[in-house]
Amino acid sequence: MHDLPFNFVDYEGIKRLFIYLNKDVQLVTRNTAKADIITRYKKEKEIVKSLLDDALLGEYLLLDLWTSLTTDGYMCLTCHFIDNNWTLQKRVLSYTFMPPPHSGLALSTKIHNLLCEWGLEERVFSITLDNAYTNDLSVDTLRVELNLKDLLVCKGDHFHMRCCAHILNLIVQEGMKGVDPSIVKIRESVKYVKGSQARKQKFLECVSLVSSGNKGLSQDVSTRWNSTYLMLQSAIHHRRAFQHLDLIDSNYKYCPSKVEWEKIEQFCSFLKVFYDSTLMFSGTNYPTANLYFPAVYLCYIELKKQIEGDNEHLKVMASKMWLKFEKYWSEFCATLAIACVLDPRYKMTFINFVYTKIYGECSLEFHRFSTKL
User: Fold this and answer.
1) N or C: more exposed end of the chain, with fewer CB within 10 A?
2) What is the pTM of this model?
3) What is the CATH number of the domain that holds 109?
4) How many CA atoms lie within 13 A of 366 on its CB side?
5) Alpha-carbon torsion, ordered 140, 288, 73, 30, to 10 deg
6) Which structural domain, as residue segments, surrounds residue 103?
7) What pLDDT does residue 7 have?
8) What residues contact residue 16 under an 8 Å CB cut-off, 6+ apart?
9) Looking at the Swiss-Prot or TrEMBL record, what is one Pfam family this protein matches (predicted)?
10) Number of structural domains, the chain?
11) Does 226 lie in the same domain as 133?
């Protein structure tokens, strides 16, 4: 819970605390503490295995990979399933160091070994990963291995699912290449205010004077567009405070003009639908596959609206995003539309409506989907 090492039981302070609480206490060594923790882990693992055995449907896996600041690779395999009370459950099966090579074959072997260890080889339905060449290769290899034993539904046609939130991230990142100068000014403004305690205090005084209410400033991260969205949102809320800071601080050179503030508000309004969809896809306590189709359709509508609109800045941005959007829409809309059909709020009526809006009446695409279903 607190990320303490096994030898914390050897700390003098811990020993004195135990003795103070109970003078007859039998102090343990770090090896004993380690053995107790491993024993507890094995018991908990059997409980999770029992839950997985009683699951009503197949298991759905989620794989996360990342590299630490020290360039070490790590892997986390999470299992989503529905228990016998029809409650969506989530369990982390493995959180482990991933030694090199980080190749598709090595990753596939690691996942396969974990499936066998947990007894899921015959029960897994799909696996979701970020969009990357190595991930694609690993899933293709794993699919072949499982198909040789005839263990996958529909020969694995629905086995590989890319992370919808990650795909939206790629789409928006494409549109934000060549960042608008107004966004750069906001970024530099936030950096300026956060640069020293004196500036922070001066900005808080500005916030108090204009009575905008302090919601804090958010600094963005270059690899996460949603952090840029949140930065712009926080800046818009403090617009008058920034304008007042510009009047009283001669060193502050980054305040956007009136036209640039309007442009920033337009950017935020455009990106809101993508941000809301990302939040929806990132939920862990409710199913999200059935939400994909209507959420992505709203993104489609917003992109078409801006491409056909009069705002040149948003038109350029939306056009870049559209190229990425088309690629992933055509590849995954049919698979995830199936989940939408099973949702009683949508059914085939909604799917037909969306395909008609996109492809026209009696579209060949809808016919293909109906045939596949």
Assistant:
1) N
2) 0.78
3) 3.30.420
4) 17
5) -130
6) 54-162
7) 86
8) none
9) hAT-like_RNase-H
10) 4
11) no
